[in-house]
TrEMBL record:
This is 8-amino-7-oxononanoate synthase. The lineage of its organism: Bacteria, Pseudomonadati, Pseudomonadota, Gammaproteobacteria, Aeromonadales. Catalyzes the decarboxylative condensation of pimeloyl-[acyl-carrier protein] and L-alanine to produce 8-amino-7-oxononanoate (AON), [acyl-carrier protein], and carbon dioxide. It is an enzyme of class 2 (transferase). Its EC number is 2.3.1.47.
Length: 398
């Protein structure tokens, strides 16, 4: 035995110090008020260009009223997991509404998208299976994929030729996203559906950022690209982004849903989402289906921002969605720019590795139908002209 000091099994302090050193330490900021595309933090009001509340529904009076009425009727909490007594008429109605909206046979509700993704992969994939994932898929998908006994193969972002080379017939599941969360671009779903059908593999879409925003009635990326819902075996979406509430769902065949009810451990062993929340989400979908006006307004804001930012010399990602990545490169430079914007009353998040690849730190600017055209102009004014091209050094569209 040496006489060195025993520090315990976990080097938490070291890990934190390392992150701080690399300008990667994360801190939270409590928000006091959030409403109408604005937030109040520390007594000051900011234009909020960081939220995923793309249609400005998070504080919609009708959704808040539906939530409150749900509480009066069902109570604050579900009280149990869905297979015990946590599954209510409100949950069932939301499942039916979703199935009708998206054109799938059946739907199952989850507390959040992170657990919905993990539940699906874990329930389906055994060691005899293969899992193909776009390398920019969400952390919940990547992480579960790497922990499962199946073999995971990651293909280059939206690289269909690479995917085709990796595919083996009848072996497993291909997973990609509708709208990529950090880049705002879309996956090519017609090509994905063709590859899946030709190889006899299943296909899963995570449409967390497309749902509500894209396609007729806001039905999402598949509808926007004209891909029939039946060509995709597993549909996953969340309620915490454009729908303005919280929670998630998985949709597909009745058989898939029956299977998940029996084998998805994140579903079976977790208290169900409050019924009142299901009431709020049902109301939100009702509004989203007829929100063409808000979606058109959002498209105009996106174009206004793109034109303005490019005219000022900034490099944007190849995105036409409300997620507009402004590429900076180094983490410290991204943090500095975010700070400068805050000084000018604009709240934007710097996104750094490991959330995005090294050297592609960015400001992830998200627009919302709650914003007005003059809000976009305020953002552009706060950004000012891109100071020098080496600010953008190393930046590229991933
Ligand atoms: C936000 C997000 C999730 C997780 O959903 P939560 O309901 O927030 O847990 C999953 N996938 C993608 C692509 C997301 O952006």
């Amino acid at each position: 035995m040496t006489s060195s000091v025993v520090t315990g099994p976990f080097a938490l302090g070291e890990a934190l110090a390392e992150r701080e050193q690399a300008a990667l330490l994360r801190r939270r900021t409590p928000v006091d008020v959030a409403s109408g595309g604005r937030i109040r933090v520390g007594g000051r009001d900011y234009l909020n260009l960081s939220a995923n509340d793309y249609l400005g529904l998070a504080d919609h009076p009708a959704i808040k009223a539906a939530f409150k009425e749900g509480i009066d009727r069902y109570g604050a909490g579900a009280g149990a997991s869905p297979l015990v007594t946590g599954y209510s008429r409100a949950h069932q109605q939301l499942e039916e509404t979703l199935a009708d909206w998206l054109g799938v046979e059946a739907v199952l509700l989850f507390n959040c998208g992170f657990s919905a993704n993990q539940a699906v992969l874990k329930a389906l994939l055994g060691k005899e299976h293969l899992l193909w994932q776009d390398k920019l898929n969400h952390a919940s998908l990547q992480e579960m994929g790497s922990q499962l006994p199946c073999k995971m193969k990651r293909f280059g972002h939206n690289d269909m030729a690479a995917l085709e080379r990796l595919l083996e017939p009848n072996r497993g599941l291909i997973v990609s996203e509708g709208v990529f969360s950090m880049d705002g671009d879309l996956a090519p779903w017609t090509a994905l559906a063709t590859l899946a059908a030709r190889s006899g593999n299943w296909l899963m879409i995570d449409d967390a950022h497309g749902l509500g925003v894209l396609g007729p009635q806001g039905r999402g990326t598949l509808a926007a690209q004209g891909v029939a819902p039946a060509r995709v075996h597993i549909h996953m979406g969340t309620f915490g982004k454009a729908l303005g509430v919280a929670g998630a769902f998985v949709g597909g065949s009745r058989e898939l849903v029956d299977y998940l009810v029996n084998f998805a451990r994140h579903y079976v062993y977790s208290t169900h989402m409050p019924a009142a929340q299901a009431c709020a989400v049902s109301k939100s979908i009702e509004l989203v289906r007829v929100a063409d006006e808000a979606r058109a307004h959002l498209v105009r804001l996106i174009a206004r921002f793109q034109q303005g930012a490019q005219a000022q010399g900034w490099t944007l990602g190849a995105s036409n969605t409300p997620i507009q990545p402004l590429l900076v490169g180094e983490s410290a430079a991204a943090l500095q720019l975010a700070e400068r914007l805050r000084d000018r009353g604009v709240w934007v998040s710097a996104i750094r590795p490991p959330t995005v690849p090294v050297g592609t730190a960015r400001l992830r600017i998200t627009l919302s139908a709650a914003h007005r055209e003059q809000d976009v102009d305020s953002l552009l004014e706060a950004l000012g002209p891109c100071p020098s091209s080496d600010q953008r050094g190393g930046a590229h569209v991933a």
